Hints:
The complex is a heterodimer of chains A (175) and B (767).
Chain A: E1 3-9, E2 12-18, H1 24-31, E3 50-53, E4 56-59, E5 72-74, H2 87-94, H3 104-117, H4 123-130, H5 141-160, H6 166-174
Parallel strand pairs in A: 1-5
Antiparallel strand pairs in A: 1-2, 3-4, 3-5
Chain B: H1 16-21, E1 36-42, E2 48-54, H2 56-60, E3 64-69, E4 77-78, E5 90-91, E6 97-98, E7 104-110, H3 113-122, E8 124-129, H4 136-139, E9 155-163, H5 166-172, E10 175-183, E11 195-201, E12 206-211, H6 216-227, E13 234-237, H7 253-265, E14 269-272, H8 275-281, E15 284-285, E16 288-296, E17 302-314, H9 320-330, E18 340-348, E19 354-355, H10 362-380, H11 384-391, E20 398-399, E21 403-404, H12 410-424, E22 432-442, E23 457-463, E24 469-473, H13 482-494, E25 501-505, H14 522-549, E26 557-560, E27 563-566, E28 573-575, H15 576-586, E29 592-598, E30 610-621, E31 628-638, H16 645-664, E32 670-671, E33 674-675, E34 693-698, H17 721-733, H18 744-766
Parallel strand pairs in B: 1-14, 12-13, 15-19, 17-18, 24-25, 31-34
Antiparallel strand pairs in B: 1-7, 2-6, 2-8, 3-7, 4-5, 9-18, 10-16, 11-12, 11-14, 16-17, 20-21, 22-30, 23-24, 23-29, 26-27, 27-28, 30-31, 32-33
Helix pairs in contact in B: 9-10, 10-17, 13-14, 14-15, 16-17
Amino acid sequence: MKRELKIVVNGESYDFYIEPKTLLVQVIREMLGFKGTHQACDSSSCAACTVILDGKAVKSCSILALQANGKEVLTIEGLADGPKLHPIQQAFIDNWAFQCGFCTSGQIMGAKALLDENPDPTREEIQSAMDGHICRCTGYNMINEAILDAAKRLQAQKNSQPQKGSRSAKSEEVA
Amino acid sequence: MREYSIIGKPTPNVDGPAKVTGEAAYTIDMTLPNMLHGKILRSPYPHAKIISIDISKAEKFPGVKGIVTGKDSPGGRYGLWRRFRELSDQECLATDKVRYIGDPVAAVAAINEEIAERALDLIEVEYEPMPAVFDPIEAIKEDAPMVHDDFPSNINATRHIEWGNVDDGFAKADYVREDRYVLSPAHPCCMEVHNSLASFDKGTGRLTVWSSTQSPYFLQQGLADALKMREGDIRVIKPHVGGGYGGKNSTMPDSILSSMLSMKTGRPVKIVFNRDEEFTATEHRTGQHMAIKIGLKKDGTIVAMEVKTITNGGAFTALGATTLYLTGTFITMPYKIPNYRYDGVRAYTNTVWGTSIRGFGAVPAKFISETQLDRAAHDLGIDPLEIRLKNAVEPGYQAPGQYTFESCAIKPCIEKMRERAKEKWPKLAKDEGIGYSAFAYMSGGIFNWIDTPYAYSSAHIKVNIDGTVDLYTQASDIGQGHNTVAAMICAEELGIGIEDIRLHLGDTAHTYTDLGAWGSRETLMNGNAIKDAAGQVKNKLIEIARLKLGENIAYDLVAKNKRVYLELRPERGLSYYDLVKDAIKANDGVPIVGTGHYTPHNKGMISPAYGMGVMAIKVKVDRETGHVEAQDVLVVHDCGQVINPLGARGQVEGSVHMGLGYGMCEEMPMDQGMVLNPEFVDYKILRTRDMPQIEILDVPTYEPNGPFGAKEAAEATIAPTAPAFANAVYAACGAEFYSNVLKPEKVLKAIREKEAKEKATSKAKSN
């Protein structure tokens, strides 16, 4: 029996009827055609398929699409601001943080979820958060450096765009 | 040092924007209209006769569009050995018998993967199991079951290397030691599994195959041999590739069976392996037994070395025979060994087969020779770096009949290591240790097993009216960053920017041949071909400039910073863009082109050039649990002129990661031919928390055989990693290892054994 799936992916609403066993990664790759999300194992152990579901990094191969019903998904395709790369993407390029690039979408989405939660992580915190991701090319150090670099860029971006809370943050600093 | 505009400057990956946005298309991401999905039925037996195959039920299963079995096979045998046909020992589908657990016996094409998979269950195969052999030593015994009935024995290949007088050498030695090792197999574990999409054109009888491959040309050849077609009727396209590491050199059943199914159904067919198939039925780093004997003078000078190995080849040859040879040569590098003998045997067995995984034979070679050298140094009371320095080769060194080192800075590398290590690690805490290992590795191989009459690498350049440059080459970027290197070399030679270059890659229909990405060959070999092509174009532009400027001698003109000008009077010159327009107008409106090529000649048996260096790893051993923490890595290497420092660092980082895996946790245990850990859950790959930081120091040289003085920077550093790690554990706690995977239980056992031995010795002494 097919069931209805209402899902928002990269800001667009979609409505499908799917078999309950359908995995989130199948909806993303096969039904929506977002091929940037890759799958590299069959045992939920590589995190290449990581996407962000309601703000949290999840392995899209280990989640039924129906578990994402009514929720919002962000994939690598939704990260850049039009033609402008997201600071994490730019930091991955500038730090040579990928080689074959196959696990990269998952790494970047994992990094995004981490930096949303912890904007100024230490190297150890990055390693702890990213430990589920397998990369066979880079040996991870250059990925960690890219994430540290991205954190700085995001911080700088935030500082250059004063927002509501910025005054109180400043006054705290003065205090 | 020479001054370059682009070479040697950190340059972001030209594929960066595509790879960080998810837009880079890998074969696995591709579909075609009307496409079917294929699945492979594999043998559950390691060795069995095929009595019958009944596909009648499967054929009737709704959604199944075509099935192929051995009867449909065009009958070609394939492998990478056109020069030695008997070693091209693979067939499209098993016909008379299966040779390993996972041997393909049939393949189904259906409207989706699920239906194809379910249809596999409906194919009835009657097997008659036969005695099988799994151990290479058993396999070469006379009464062993034969893996290939048409081969004289299970001895798949032998390699003998000898120079000097080994027996005399040992007679002159003050110290001789002999050790035996067992090295376990390891898997390349590409993140993108093997997969291919084949489309057969019924009208023309031509085939197009998109595949995750390291070498479009090897695949074109392999398919032509297997399917008995003309190479020119097969077009291979290599999109972005999600890792290779040696595991994607061979033509594999994904491409052959998707092609056969496409020919049978008249529709495009895609076959994607799952991770289990990847581990159980694709190529891995060979497991092997090794014995090494070394003779030294009291002062640490090596006088003789003798090495024997027998490798578990598995069911087929792939590049295993060359791996066997290279193990025998890399083991001697980078040392002066006056008397040397090597005997290698590769045995066929009923297991999945091994090939040339990253390091091409150097990984087991260096593990045994560098760990043994440390024990010899310890016994002779010589410092580990001192013994390596004492025996290190100098520029111009020749191993008789084998190889010559032209650029060579191994001694400066070791000296720099000594200095830096002292500074970096002034004091060690309890249970900490530092291990060292030296290394050298080829910059592309001088091997022509495929018997190609083509140049080893070629490149074609076309300059358009607006100054943009189209560069066409089959050279493969499989993640190592060669596309960036190719663009940099082209731009440097023409004196223009990377942004002026457009790359056209990996399509056999539109590019000139290159043998692909293996043996760290692309920078040197394809780099030379690109430089040749760009040089031809440059000379045409310089000639126009000479005429326009009224200069007598073209040699005084250089192309740099988008101008062609007089080297000594830079103000006298012309814009590159204007010159291009003039050149094309003067050429009847035809774009300016150049076709360059490179094939090494008279450069010994292995390679025109060698990258080299020395590695140190610092560890801390937990004596209670046996857990070893790799804390710090220091690499000092000579890779000639670095083309792209970002990419070169990436290669070292990745090699150390895979090398540490070989030393710490990666193994493929098999039972009766069955791989016991065919998932990432059980096959342990180091994660980010396991990885130490790596400091890399360059000792630049100028390699005369390489483009702009460049040579290998990719694979060399995998080989010294595991032995440096084992040597560090030895330095920390005295535990000795004669196999590669230093898991906690193994470390603990080695510590206990050492302690027991010490107790027994002290007891004996006190008695």
